[in-house]
Structure formats: C-alpha cells, structure tokens
Write a structure and sequence with these properties.
By secondary structure, the chain is α+β, with helices and mostly antiparallel strands. The chain is 31% helix and 27% strand. Strand 7 and strand 8 form a beta hairpin.
C-alpha cells in the first residue's frame, strides 16, 4: 500500500472519490492511501450515501483532513470493514493524544464525543459531537473510501468535534494536521501489510 501526503490545499467535493484519482492526479499507483488538507463542500449530485440523500443532508466543513483509500479488486463489504478499521485507528490516536481522558465512541463508521459522559447508551446523531465524515463505495475496478476529519468545527451544518477542540482538551499539546495525516496513513499501511503477511503464512485446509 502506497502513502502520500499532498501539500496543496484541495476542496473535497466528491470528485476525488473515483478510480485512479491518486494515480492520475498525484502519481500514486496501486493500492494506496493519500491525504491532504482543505475545505469540504459536496454538491447533492456527488453525495454517495443514500441516507444522506433521503435526509437532504448538507455536507460541509471549512477545514478538514481528507483521506482517499483505494484498493483494487475489492468488494464493497471489504471496503466497509476497512473503513471501520481506519475509524478505530483514528479513535486510538485520539485516545493517545488525550491520554484516554475523552468520551469518544464509534458508531458505525463515525466517531462521536458524547455530550453526557454518564449516559451509557450509544452515541446519538444530532446530539453528540461528530468528529468525521466517511463513505465507502466501489467502482468496476476498485474499492474506494473517503474519510474526512474536522480540523475546525466552525459553521458546520451539524454539531461537530474537531482537531482544534482536541488540542484544547489536551491543554494545547496538539499535533499539526500533517502529522496526524502521516501517522494515520502509516498505521493503516502497517495494518494492511501485516494482514497481507497473515494470508501468506497459513496452510490450506483440506
């Protein structure tokens, strides 16, 4: 799995969720995860999630850390599971930053900060603060994931948590967005490579 941090600012508008985007635009060939910083503003015709379309959701952020993952010859269920694995990696990194002193929970492929720490129920959309957006899909040749993490929570259409908020939670000891991107890409790359190695050391069962 190749990784690359893109230094230029790019507005994520859904166009980037397409086969060979990393290769044709950033010369990253094959299975890959790329990352960049920029706003997010997805028009209705580029929204992939059917639930968002039914609910008329507006997907917008002034500043996000964006990831595009592409795996060739992958099925949709494999991409959904990888999407959730990456979500857990992000959650683990947040816990390390904040020394576990944060009530962040995963609901499917999204991370929420529960507003009532004593509430043992699962996070509830539109009540708790959402850290990310995420979608997994497939094309005829590859599986694709977009995962965006809020750097700022200003002017978002739903209640959000951001990396800036986490820096406050951690008393100012924050990582720069690029450091977050490099760290998270390296973590997923290692999980992918280790998983591939695991497939190469087991015997066939007769």
């Amino acid at each position: 799995m190749q990784t690359k941090f893109i230094t230029q600012e790019i507005i994520y508008n859904g166009v980037q969720l397409s086969s060979l985007y990393a290769y044709l635009n950033h010369q990253v060939l094959g299975d890959s995860i790329i990352c960049w910083r920029g706003p997010c503003d997805i028009p209705k015709d580029k929204i992939v999630d059917g639930q968002d379309l039914l609910e008329g959701s507006k997907i917008y952020s002034e500043d996000m850390l964006h990831f595009i993952i592409e795996i060739f010859d992958a099925k949709l269920i494999e991409m959904v599971l990888m999407q959730r694995l990456f979500c857990e990696i992000v959650k683990d990194q947040v816990f390390k930053l904040c020394a576990g002193d944060i009530n962040l929970e995963r609901l499917g492929d999204d991370l929420y900060l529960k507003m009532n720490p004593k509430d043992k129920a699962k996070p509830v959309k539109n009540q708790d603060l959402k850290l990310n957006i995420s979608i997994a899909t497939v094309s005829p040749i590859s599986g694709l994931i977009h995962f965006g993490i809020n750097i700022s929570s200003q002017n978002t259409p739903v209640k959000t948590l951001s990396l800036q908020d986490l820096a406050i939670k951690n008393k100012g000891c924050d990582l720069a967005p690029k450091e977050w991107g490099l760290c998270l890409m390296a973590r997923l790359q290692e999980e992918w490579l280790d998983s591939r190695r695991a497939t190469q050391k087991v015997k066939w069962v007769k």
